[in-house]
């Protein structure tokens, strides 16, 4: 097909509308290019529940096999299950998913052996270049010996591995509502939770890539309303919501109130530090709460602050040997999971922490909710650089204020901070603010928004 790869090859993955922007013929070329760039003898391929995923995945495998690469196809899986397979089998991997995007979208998340990420600077630009060349000149010449295609189910091994990383042997009975959003959590949760003393209340476990109930993006408050209501109706101990490819997990407490991913990051960081002997590096991005580095230090760890984005987290995890990393977007990264992100492992940590003591989740997490945050507020801005410069000028000469430009602009005072950073793909500025109390947070949030939107 005549495709514009600049529109679908993103910074960290391939993503676009099927069949308008890409199709199985293009997926086959991507498979061949992935084989060529990784120079692998074998790869592993999996896919989510979207209607287009099986065909795209099969075409990709066919393209790789044509160049002599053996392909292990694991079929339906979550993204972190694909990372498990890449790590456990030590093979490069390809996951067909568009995460929480609408049904007409699909994409490919790629990794090298051991779940090492593939982005623009680590192979994706080369893959695009090869595919663009083959679109003009025809498919690459096949290998003398075609690679094999083998079907393997890794779900039980994935579940067993996750449970080997968290001690769940002595947890009390818990009632858990899980909203899978018709995504891959409906496939993985029953097996991961099997045999645990949990009363599971499933919501939208039917695999349906048309997302008939709500968008599978739990960070949008509109998409957890059903979960919050059900938790209250069931008098459940907590609720869990997964996104479409089930690599992110969002938590609500027993009252149905959403739990900040920063609080989950702090909780899991404390547990991982204890599991690693009371020391280690923990990565957090610059829009996580002040609570996170405080808790890390209190538990003997070393916090390291990074830019927003999984590529920065994963790179810093590898560089520093960090044991854990967390983002405010509900991505959680573990050294013992090949530095890859797995919301399911974070969920197991929450169940273990709650189940080994008697207080409700809201009380347990009160130690990790020390400040008031605004959440992310987006503003449409034509001149992103100009508005950031205006904010910098407004705060530059104020006493007790520090400015840093690690990612956008962060303005920090003794009792508050805010960060403004531009979107890479849209004319937006994203504001996150936090303060020691709500009136201060609202004041500084409104002050920043006035400058951004003026």
What is the 3D form? globular
Cα-based radius of gyration, to the nearest Å: 22 Å
β content, as a range? 15-25%
Largest sheet: 7 strands, mixed
Uncertain parts: none
- The CATH superfamily of the largest domain appears as Alpha-D-Glucose-1,6-Bisphosphate, subunit A, domain 3
How far the N terminus sits from the C terminus, by CA atoms, comes to: 45 Å
Integer count of domains: 4
Structure characterization notes:
This is Phosphomannomutase/phosphoglucomutase. Belongs to the phosphohexose mutase family. It comes from Streptomyces vulcanius. Residues 7-132, 157-256, 266-371 form the Alpha-D-phosphohexomutase alpha/beta/alpha domain. This protein is globular. It has 454 residues and is α/β, with parallel strands linked by helices. Helix 2 packs across helix 5 (124-137) and helix 9 packs across helix 12 (343-355). It has 15 helices and 21 strands. The strands form 4 sheets. Strands 1, 2, 3, 4, 5, 6 and 7 form a 7-stranded mixed beta sheet that branches. Strands 16, 17, 18, 19, 20 and 21 form a 6-stranded antiparallel beta sheet that branches. The protein has a 4-stranded mixed beta sheet with strand order 9-8-10-11, with helices on both faces. Strand 5 (105-112) and strand 6 (116-117) form a beta hairpin. It has helices at 5-8, 24-38, 53-66, 79-89, 124-137, 155-164, 185-193, 225-234, 261-275, 291-298, 310-320, 343-355, 361-364, 384-395, 438-452, and strands at residues 14-17, 42-47, 70-76, 93-96, 105-112, 116-117, 149-151, 174-179, 198-203, 238-242, 249-252, 280-285, 301-306, 324-326, 332-334, 372-373, 377-380, 402-404, 409-413, 416-422, 428-435. The mean pLDDT is 96. It has 4 domains: 5-153, Alpha-D-Glucose-1,6-Bisphosphate, subunit A, domain 3 (Alpha-D-Glucose-1,6-Bisphosphate, Chain A, domain 3, 3-Layer(aba) Sandwich); 157-252, Alpha-D-Glucose-1,6-Bisphosphate, subunit A, domain 3 (Alpha-D-Glucose-1,6-Bisphosphate, Chain A, domain 3, 3-Layer(aba) Sandwich), CATH 3.40.120.10; 261-368, Alpha-D-Glucose-1,6-Bisphosphate, subunit A, domain 3 (Alpha-D-Glucose-1,6-Bisphosphate, Chain A, domain 3); 372-452, Alpha-D-phosphohexomutase, C-terminal domain (TATA-Binding Protein), CATH 3.30.310.50.
């Amino acid at each position: 097909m005549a495709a514009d790869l600049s529109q679908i090859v993103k910074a960290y993955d391939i993503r676009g509308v099927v069949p308008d922007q890409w199709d199985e013929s293009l997926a086959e070329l991507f498979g061949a290019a992935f084989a060529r760039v990784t120079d692998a003898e074998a790869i592993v391929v999996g896919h989510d529940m979207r209607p287009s995923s099986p065909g795209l995945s099969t075409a990709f495998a066919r393209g790789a096999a044509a160049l002599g690469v053996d392909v292990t196809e694991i079929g339906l899986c979550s993204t972190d299950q694909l990372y498990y397979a890449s790590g456990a089998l030590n093979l490069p991997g390809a996951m067909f998913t568009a995460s929480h995007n609408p049904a007409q979208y699909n994409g490919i998340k790629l990794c090298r052996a051991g779940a090492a990420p593939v982005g623009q600077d680590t192979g994706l630009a080369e893959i695009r270049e090869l595919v663009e060349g083959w679109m003009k000149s025809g498919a690459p010449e096949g290998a003398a010996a075609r690679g094999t295609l083998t079907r393997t189910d890794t779900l039980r091994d994935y579940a067993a591995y996750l449970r080997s990383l968290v001690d769940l042997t002595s947890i009390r009975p818990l009632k858990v509502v899980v909203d899978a959003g018709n995504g891959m959590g409906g496939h993985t949760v029953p097996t991961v939770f099997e045999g645990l003393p949990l009363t599971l209340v499933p919501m939208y476990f039917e695999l349906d890539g048309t997302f008939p109930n709500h968008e599978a993006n739990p960070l949008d408050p509109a998409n957890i309303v059903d979960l919050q209501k059900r938790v209250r109706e069931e008098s459940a101990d907590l609720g869990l919501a997964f996104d479409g490819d089930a690599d992110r997990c969002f938590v609500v407490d027993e009252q149905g109130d959403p739990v900040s991913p920063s609080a989950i990051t702090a909780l899991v960081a404390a547990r991982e530090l204890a599991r690693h002997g009371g020391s280690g590096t923990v990565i957090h991005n610059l829009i996580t709460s002040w609570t996170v580095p405080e808790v890390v230090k209190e538990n003997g760890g070393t916090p390291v602050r990074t830019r927003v984005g999984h590529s920065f987290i994963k790179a810093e995890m590898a560089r520093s040997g960090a044991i854990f990393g967390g983002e405010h977007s509900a991505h959680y990264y573990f050294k013992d999971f090949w530095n890859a992100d797995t919301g399911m492992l974070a969920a197991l940590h929450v169940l273990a922490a709650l189940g080994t003591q008697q207080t409700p989740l809201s009380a347990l997490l009160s130690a990790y909710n020390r400040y008031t945050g605004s959440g992310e507020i987006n503003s449409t801005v034509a001149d992103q650089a100009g508005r950031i410069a205006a904010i910098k000028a407004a705060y530059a000469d104020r006493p007790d204020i520090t400015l840093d430009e690690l990612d956008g602009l962060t303005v920090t005072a003794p009792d508050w901070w805010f960060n403004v950073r531009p979107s890479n793909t849209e004319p937006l500025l994203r504001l996150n603010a936090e303060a020691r109390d709500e009136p201060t947070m609202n004041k500084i949030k409104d002050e920043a928004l006035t400058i951004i939107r003026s």
